[in-house]
Each structure stands twice: as C-alpha cells, then as structure tokens.
DNA sequence: TTGAAAGCGCTACCAC
DNA sequence: GTGGTAGCGCTTTCAA
C-alpha cells in the first residue's frame, strides 16, 4: 500500500497526498477531504522508513542504559520520553546489561537508525567508544562518563559529596565498621562510589573501616552480596549499598538471618527510587533527580521552545541525603552475638512476633 | 556518508559494497578486505531506513504494553527481546499508560515502522482497534484481549481458575470479609479478576463478602487504594490485590496504620514478580509465567528454528498459587479493635519495638 | 566475481 | 492549489 494508491483513489497526484499527510502547503479543503477519505478507506499507513529517508530528518532520539530493570534507569528513560513526546519526538531505548559488547552493538544500531540525538546512561563505557561517538555529528549526552567536548553534554553526579554526607551521618551515629555492596561494573561509578567511601573513611583514620562485596545489579544480587559479605565473618554495623535495589535485596538477606534493621545493622541505598519508600524499613538513601536528568537530556538533544539543542556543557548533580527508617545509632549490645547464633540456621523469614 | 563514498575509496561499485555488507553473494576476499578497510576508515554506518526500504523486510518486532514500570510487563518485554535477539531481530517497545488514545498512537507508529510482528499486551483494548489490526497483514499476538482469528495468536490467563484457588485458600484460613484492590482500566482483566472473586465468593453465599477499591497501577496506587478501602470503615481480614506491585503498596499502608500482616490482615498479590519475594512479608501470590509468554510471542511472530511464524492459535495459561508469608489464619481477636484506635493517628511508620 | 540500473515509498522543489 | 519529478541510500535482478 503506497501513496500512489491513495492518490489514484482520490484523483490527485501523490504530491498532494503527501501534502495533506504533512500539513505542509495549503491544500484545498475539498481535495483534502477527498484524500483523507481515501486514506481511511484504504487503511493507508505511510512508511516511516521512506519518510525519514526522503525527508532527511529524524524526529527520534535514542537512550541507551545499563539496566532498564533498575528503576533508576527506567525513570530517566521515562522522563526523556515525556519531554520528547511533548516535542513530537519518539524515543527508542536499548539495554546493555552492563556488557560492553552490547553497548557497542546498541550504539551502532542507534547510528544506523540515524537518531537525532543519543543519551548514553551506562557505566561500562570504554574510552575508545567515547572517542568514536564524539567524532560523529549526532549530539550526545553522557551520564557519568567521558569529558566535555564538542557536541557533547556531560551530566555527572557528585558522588564524593553525597557519600561524604552519608558516611559522616553514619559516623555520627557511631558506626565504625562499614560494609559496601556494589555491582559488577568494569569501571566508573561503582569504583567511584566505593573509592569515595574509602576516602571519607580515611579522614577518620583508624576510627573506621570498610569491606566490600559485589554482585549483579538486582534485588537478588543485593541479597547475594550481603550474604557474601557476612559469610566472610565480617560484622559491619552499617551497610552502604551502591543503589536502592541492591539495598532492598540486602534487607531481605538480613531479615532472613534474623538481623534487625536498623537495630542490629543500618542499611543505606542510593538513588531514592520509589521502592525505597515502600520497602520495610523504608530506606535511608541519597536522592538523584532522574527527572532533572531526563529534562537535561532533552534540552541537549532536542532543544526547548524552538531553541536549538544545547550541548557542549557539563551539569553536576548534588545528591541529597534522605533519612528514613533503615539507619540508626549503633546499639550497645553488638550485633555479632546474635549473628553467631543465627548464622548457620536456614534462610527463612523469622516467625512473626 | 553513503555507500558511494565507500565504493569510491575501495575502487569498486556500490553493489559490491552492499554485498560485503550483507554477506550475500561471494565476494573476492581481496576485494572484500579492501571494502572492509574503506568502511572502517570512513567510519561508515549504513542507513537502516534505506536498507529496510530497499530490502522490503523488517527484522524488528513491536511490543506494546500498558505499563512498563510494572515488572510484569517488563519481564514479558525482556523475554521477547531475549528470544528476538537470538534470532537476529530487534524489538521496539511502547508504553500506553493504560490510555486508549496512546494505544492507538502506538499501534499506528508500529505499523508505520513496518514491524514484522506485533505483540499487544494491554488491557484497555477497544474492539474497534482489534478489528483494525486483525485486518492487516502483520502477525499479531494479543494478551488477554480479542478472540482467535487469522494471523492472530491469543494468549490468555485463566484468571477464574487462579482466583478460585486463591479464594478457596483464603476461605480455608477462615477469611470471610475480603477486600479487593484493583487498578483503573476501562475493561477486561481487572473486571475479569474482580468478577472471578465475586463469582467464587458466591459459591459460599452469605458466608463471604467483598468490597473493592481501585487506583493507579503502581506502588503508590496500591497504597492509596488500601487507604480508601479502609477509610470506608470496611474491615476486611484479607485483601486480594490485582497484582504484586499494588500489593506492595497496600502493605505499606497497612504497616503505617499499625496493622500487622498477616496477623491482622492477610494480603495477596498476582503475577509473582521478583519483588514479591523481597518485600516484607513476602507475598502470597499467583504465578504467571512471563518467560513463557515471551517465548510464545516470539514463536508466533518470528518462528523458531527456521520454522515459519505460527499464529492462529490460542494459548491458555494457568496461574499457580504461591504461598508465602503474607497470608495466615484469621485471628481470634478481630483486627477491628486495633484499627479503631489507630485509624486517626498520623500515617507514619510505627516505632521499632 | 563484479557493475549497471531499476526500484523501495516518500519529500521537496519547481513549474503551471 | 496542484502535478511532475529528482533524489534520499540502499538491495537486487540482469548482464557482462
């Protein structure tokens, strides 16, 4: 089914049909009506590929993320989509699952689709890829990776500052032995966050210590990481998690071990995704404004209010500490006495009191 | 950057470049090497739109869902994507947010993209739209809506049977006053589930009763719905939720009101998404196999092992009851005495014991 | 094994 | 206002 069929049926040229399809030049209302009628009757749907090929423009932006299943990434995507739709753009997402070769595939696909702009929200970015992208002519937004450059916007989070607030807060509650739960990610953010924790701890010298454990970025990964951390025999009074979903996973493991949060162990998340309010106990976490990230991405890639897209800049986000119910003072009776007993028991929920 | 540039640089015709790009006909290894080199040097990326336009084929399937934020839909999407990628297909998702007009937009867009197949996993489907789709030549999979037809696969869940198991289970625990929490959805599944509850209850005649409340399909919606339900003064001993995320939301509201689950109120979910294992208490729910749904979709749309796509059939899924910690026997002391006191107190987490 | 050329379905420019 | 038509960048016969 092509334009031609519609043209014939309406008794006009394909040029005219194209005009009514695009509302471009003025078309005689009667003619227009006839065309519209023909379109409806024939159930005609224009071919998007032919359109973009002929038109040359794109009207779609790409978003690549590490793990859509993690609501953090999903929220960013949603925010982008909201703004994009409002401006008549489509957005296509792709998931890398933290795999560098998938990232490379995704990027290639986006370029082949000739997206008008591309947001890369991943942590496994290899420098070579960054260079390659930076060379092209598609406007790009990087989150957490790469450096400012022509045609590139960089959004980054001031992890150091966030972690500082967090660790100082924990220290003020008397915590000295910390645990850190991260996810597998070859470079970047995770290391940055863990490093930040270590650096801040260094300020208190021998006063504090931290041990870490990593696993998949998921609820299950958080649980496993917590299990590993505790299985080593280490007894942290507070566990800092790289993000909220892993924290929720850790919560589960602690519960199964009969450890109460925050009485026996404090737990913190990162991102402040919705679930952090709904889990039990609600998580103390650091807020990162996904909507702001989404808006910035659209501003950079599409532009706002007929302003041209605006790249070539760097936006720094400051995480904000959100204190809820998963953190508390270190208790007088060390948690270790409880753990010693429960450690070997099967991992089941404790009977309700 | 076009094929032509590559051809010139490699000293061959564009036809030859196209051949190496597609591994179609045999190309002289030396020529091939020269072409590949030119491609690399020029950082050439083929134009996907031109390719699909010229080639006529699609290699992408579309998936439309009501709410990607709900892991149920997301899991289905992931499953489809996994299978599709394995067969060299891309998948593009779209979200309707339960809005009929968005659904219509999404469908149109998918058709314009000339997807090779389309899965429609939504609950707000209007009959007119179904007819329109069924008329086309794209293979379609509907979930939960529509009837068998040419070029169409129907996947449906035997809600009645699932709800029967669930309600009978609750009845066996002594529950008589039920609450039902659903989401706003104009027709279909929700009504089907609630209706199923009512029908099953009818079997016990005056023995049981149910009242329902609806809200957005989200954690927050679940909380609000629970709030509304209880604010009416109704005192259910068990709350049946239309899905797991709303159940998690409800859990939060109950906790804030000082109601213990399952001692004071039992709560059930639906879907058995990951979070249902990780919330506290872990949810009793009905399992729906998202992976199976995903596989079926790919089978129908793409085909497996070089078999042709296989539509024109109906697949019925039987939900399986998964009993966890959110349900229990009705306690001797009615929950109402506790509620009466706590009802007017501010909604905050209770102090830890 | 390679090249020439005819589309694929549309947009946009130039005439009328 | 409307029609004719030259591309858009590629795939795919058909010849050579």
Question: What is the fold's blueprint, element by element?
Answer:
The structure is a homodimer of 353-residue chains.
Chain A: H1 3-10, H2 14-22, H3 29-42, H4 48-55, E1 60-65, H5 71-86, E2 90-95, H6 100-112, E3 117-121, H7 127-135, E4 140-143, E5 152-157, H8 159-172, E6 177-183, H9 189-203, E7 209-215, H10 219-231, E8 238-241, H11 244-256, E9 266-268, H12 275-278, E10 285-287, H13 290-301, E11 313-317, E12 320-322, H14 336-342
Parallel strand pairs in A: 1-2, 1-3, 3-4, 4-5, 5-11, 6-7, 6-8, 8-9
Antiparallel strand pairs in A: 10-12
Helix pairs in contact in A: 1-2, 1-3, 5-13, 8-9, 10-11
The structure holds a DNA duplex (16 and 16 nucleotides).
Give keywords:
DNA-binding, six-stranded parallel β-sheet, 14 helices, four-stranded parallel β-sheet, 353 residues, homodimer, alpha/beta
């Amino acid at each position: 089914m092509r334009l031609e069929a519609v043209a014939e049926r309406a008794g006009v040229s394909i040029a005219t049909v194209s005009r009514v399809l695009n509302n471009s030049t003025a078309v005689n209302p009667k003619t227009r009506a006839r065309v519209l009628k023909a379109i409806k009757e024939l159930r005609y749907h224009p071919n998007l590929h032919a359109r973009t090929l002929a038109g040359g423009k794109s009207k779609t932006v790409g978003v690549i993320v590490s793990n859509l299943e993690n609501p953090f990434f999903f929220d960013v995507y949603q925010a982008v989509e909201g703004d994009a739709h409002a401006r008549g753009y489509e957005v296509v997402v792709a998931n890398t699952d933290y795999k560098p070769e998938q990232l490379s595939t995704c990027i290639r696909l986006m370029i082949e689709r000739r997206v008008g702009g591309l947001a890369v929200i991943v942590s496994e970015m290899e420098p070579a890829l960054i260079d390659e992208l930076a060379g092209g002519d598609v406007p790009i937004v990087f989150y957490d990776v790469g450096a400012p450059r022509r045609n590139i916007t960089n959004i980054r989070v001031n992890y150091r500052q966030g972690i500082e607030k967090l660790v100082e807060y924990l220290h003020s509650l008397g915590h000295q032995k910390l645990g850190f739960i991260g996810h597998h990610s070859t470079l970047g953010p995770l290391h940055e966050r863990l490093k930040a924790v270590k650096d801040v701890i260094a300020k208190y010298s021998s006063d504090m210590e931290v041990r870490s454990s990593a696993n998949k970025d998921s609820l299950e990964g958080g649980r496993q990481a917590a299990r590993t951390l505790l299985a080593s025999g280490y007894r942290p009074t507070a566990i800092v998690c790289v993000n909220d979903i892993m924290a929720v996973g850790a919560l589960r493991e602690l519960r199964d071990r009969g450890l109460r949060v925050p009485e026996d162990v404090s737990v913190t998340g990162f991102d402040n995704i919705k679930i952090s309010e709904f889990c039990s106990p609600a998580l103390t976490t650091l807020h990162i404004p996904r909507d702001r990230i989404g808006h910035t991405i659209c501003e950079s890639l599409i532009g706002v209010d007929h302003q041209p897209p605006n790249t070539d800049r760097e936006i720094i986000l400051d995480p904000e500490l959100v204190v809820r119910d998963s953190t508390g003072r270190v208790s007088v009776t060390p948690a270790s006495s409880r753990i010693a007993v429960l450690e070997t028991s099967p991992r089941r929920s404790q009977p309700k009191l």
